[in-house]
Amino acid sequence: LRDTTAATTLRSPAALRRLLSALAILEQREGKLNTGSLSAITAAKQLGGTIHGFVAGSNISAVAAESAKVAGVDKIIAVDSAAYDKGLPENYAPLLVANIKKGGYTHVIAGHTAFGKNLMPRVAALLDSQQISDITAIQDDKTFVRPIYAGNAIATVESSDAIKFITIRGTAFPAAAIGSGAATIEEGIDPKADTATTEWVSEDLAKSDRPDLATASRVVSGGRGLKSKEEFDRVMLPLADALGAAVGASRAAVDSGYADNSLQVGQTGKVVAPQLYMAVGISGAIQHLAGMKDSKVIAAINKDADAPIFQVADVGLVGDLFDKVPELTEKLGKA
Ligand code: FAD
User: Fold this and answer.
1) Which residues does 36 contact at the CB level (< 8 Å), separation at least 6?
2) 70: Cβ below 6 Å to ligand 1?
3) What separation in angstroms does the CA of 14 have from each of 46, 156, 213, 284?
4) What DSSP designation does 265 have?
């Protein structure tokens, strides 16, 4: 005999949503919430069901309070300990495992950021699950869409794991807004997971007053055509300032030392999808396109009319960048 009542109940979408519960991992740096990580909450909302947010670090109460204001979040789990400040995965993974076990979540979601990529596979492995990486869409609670082969093919994957561990592409899920939500804040389990196997020594961050590359609405990127770091700075930075844009770079420009590694756009750099992406002296190699081809408007300046970048550009200017960019910057200054 089959219990058809239960089967019917399980098939109903509303009943299914009631069974779903997602934990969104939120990032913080030095006591400040990384609002980009609120994309994980947007993804959790698309799943439906209960949504909890997770934050950890020292003096975490302000970050927890800010996160609790995101509409649609039911609860924020906060763990206050300096052991989790830098997100060292050796410490953070057992912390998450303890809290996931307690919460009984069906989905655990983090951004496909350096933090998420470092952490989630370890957590998934500890709970004997397979991670689903860098998704761009959710079809249902077990079916997800993700680009593969540097965005040249789109795979639809289905997971039968009891807990789905997912990293999401930030450009596909806009960050949830901090509004007037009133989630409860609960102290999470602290397994005192400071393994001491790794130690945070130091960090050397490129500080800039310009908009953040990953979230800016305008990006100007320079490539090998800029010829040197001096020329990159002389030509690209005034253009960025005239447009109020973030600065990006191709891998060739980064490898040649023209720009900082954190500015690299592409398959092995950042994935951006701004309103305007301007590629200057960039040929448009497939690995670069993988990081910017979803931009709303793509403009390119290149002296080679056959450069592949023009195949994806909405607006193209064939010419010498050393003439064209200063001219454009000057005109923007007057506009
Ligand atoms: P080039 O291909 O050398 O192009 C320079 C362009 O500048 C040319 O089109 C030229 O016509 C133009 N130019 C030169 N002088 C002028 C001038 N005076 N005025 C106007 N135009 C001028 N690349 C990335 O960018 N990001 C990645 O994340 C990335 N990941 C990779 C991962 C792997 C596994 C591999 C194998 C490669 C990866 N690459 C990546 C490298 C990629 O294949 C290209 O080598 C790189 O993108 C080329 O950079 P570029 O366009 O600046 O240089």
Assistant:
1) 27, 111, 113, 170, 175, 212, 214, 215
2) no
3) 13, 24, 39, 46
4) B
Question: How far apart, in whole angstroms, are the C-alpha atoms of residue 207 and residue 255?
Answer: 20
Q: What is the pLDDT of residue 190?
A: 95
Backbone dihedral angles phi then psi of residue 149, each to the nearest 5 degrees: 50, 55
Compute the distance between CA of residue 292 and CA of residue 199 in angstroms, rounded to an integer: 35
Ligand 1: centre distance to CA 36 (Å): 28
pLDDT in tens, 229-284: 999 999 999 999 999 999 999 999 999 999 999 999 999 999 999 999 999 999 99
CA of 208 to the centre of ligand 1 (A): 24
Q: Ligand 1 pocket test: which of 283, 292, 310, 320 has the largest number of ligand atoms within 8 Å of its C-beta?
A: 283
List the one residue out of 287, 225, 297 whose CA is nearest residue 259: 225
CB distance 302 to ligand 1 below 6 Å? yes
CA distance 53 to 117: 18
Share above pLDDT 90 across residues of the chain, in percent, rounded to a whole number: 83
Closest ligand 1 atom to Cα of 267:
28
Q: Of 39, 57, 37, 41, whose CA–CA distance to 49 is shortest?
A: 41
ipTM of the complex: 0.99
| 289 contacts: CB under 8 Å, gap ≥ 6 | 150, 151, 266, 308, 312
Phi then psi dihedrals of residue 286, to 5 deg: -55, -35
Give Cα separations from 23 to 52, 55, 297 (angstroms).
Answer: 5, 10, 34
Distance 250 CA to ligand 1 centre (A): 6
